[in-house]
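Suppose a classmate hands you a notebook page containing two proteins, each written out with its sequence and a corresponding row of structure tokens. How would you begin to make sense of it? This section walks through that situation. The first entry is reproduced here exactly as it would appear on such a page.
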Amino acid sequence: MNRTTLSLIAAAAALAAVTGFAAATAPGDDGDSAKAAARLPVERSSLLCPAPSTSDLAETAYTSYTPVSQGSGSSGKAALSPATRELTDGTGSGKGKADKPVLSPLKPGRPVAGEASGAESPALVGSADGNLAPGWTVQQTTEVAAGTGRGLLGVNCSAPDTDFWFPGASTAKERSDYIHLTNPDDSAAVVDVQLFGAKGAIKSDVGEGIQVQPHSSVPVLLSTLTDKPQTNVTLHVTARSGRVAAAVLAADDKLGGDWLPASADPAGTVVLPGIPKDATSVRLVAFTPGDNDADLKVQLASPTGRITPAGHESLHVKSGMTAAVDLGDVTRGEAGSLVLTPTGDSAPVVAALRVVRGKGDDQESAFIPATRPVGARATVADNRAKGSTLSLTAPGAAGTVKVTASAGTEGGTPVTKTYTVKGGTTMSVRPPVPAGLKGSYALTVEQVSGGEVYGSRMLDVPDADVPGVHMFTVQTLPDDRGTVSVPHADQDLSVLQK
């Protein structure tokens, strides 16, 4: 007769580390167990990259990076491989994904780069485990030389989920916005896509029950979901079954194009960090998904403190309706971040900014969604020796962060620098560059002390065809959730199995 003892706490710890689910303290707990909880690195991560462009002129760079994490073990593996490409009606070929990876990272602390060209580049499906999983980051950067959606298109490849909000999308005639849905799993996902305009929900049956086959991607043109074009809409994506990654590729006839990532979850106070100092036009789009309206104070966290934009002191957002306001050149030559705070009993909101640089025919645009603080650690890959700008915002109390520039994809020595951001301000800096840099590199931001800090990175590159014109993209820096909280057990509860 054999007897096996299995510790329930050990099993819970292993499950948390694999799935990335964090343990929570139950209501009424005295908090002692939470204080004793250990932070363990996740053991598996999934990332999905949307199909980069429909332009034959597109040139795409992929950069993968995993920071070094204590306790993550000495080995791991990761790969980012092409997904099956599907039609906009969701009827894919079902032939499965290709075997050859676009990227195969080898170890933490060393970024790896890959490339793709043309309009046929597919979406990518990736996974990492072991010491390559905690904080795994992949940046997709595409240069489009001409045509609708020209410019620098950047996006952090994202983890799959079941619920996404995209304020700032559009079905206007000058815009061609696609929502890209990518399924990493072995079973089909069923997804609903709903649009909300200035007067509420936009009725459409086309966006219901979109099927995304296993290991495949579906792009859906938003203008096909409504008969009446609307300049500002909020897009809600929900998965009835399965899970997907979702991102909006927004292309404008005059303002170029870029990726619109999902906003952070609805919240009372939201922060949108990193408006460039030379922004010529800034549009704020907000939406409240609850049953109550939202009343928000609008402030700009400037280099010297919070200021209220003249004529835009507040914003009222009606329940279920998209609100938009043009803030013009709100930064007036100084980099800043927008901070929205509730006034009175205000409902949670999601929000995003469309930022325009340049004038006339030389305008380019990018998007800044509401984001989470950098927290324990946040990372952005594909930084260049020239052209990267790091924006750090402390909307409340002053906060201190440590910024580490990794080695380069082809060589270089990491360097670290510490920054203290004064409360209520935005600090815009040229980030540290690795000594002897060859190739591109990653930036990792870690909270050291003080109040919460939010961040973003702007990548600016010269337009090879138009002298003096620069293309740009902005990526926010939310906590990478590379660790999970596993509570300590005062008593080992066991199951005896005969």
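The notebook's second entry, a different protein, reads as follows.
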Amino acid sequence: MHVLPYLVAAYVFLTGCYGLATSRNLIHAVGCLAVCQSSTYVLLLAVGYRDGATAPVFSDLQPGSRPVVDPVVQALTLTDIVVGATVTALLLALVLQIAKRHGTVDPDELRELRG
């Protein structure tokens, strides 16, 4: 089993978390959160990958003749991409409304939102 895709997923996730923790801008924070989510794409595809496997959609394959890639993991990755794009769009819309109402996207300057 290859370890490289898992290391890449961990590196991308930690890079996004570092950017999220050090962000002084809400738009930058949303972008870093999207980077964190993109590490799950790499992780899911690494889980479903098999050496020498083919796509399971070919009709000339006899069952058990050669290995195929797991299509469920690919479907989960596509679902993850759609959900990630939707969450990113929603968060950017919220940041836009915060910028309109409060005139800033710096989280430290948003005193009215603290309890």
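A careful reader of the second entry would note: The chain has three helices and no strands.
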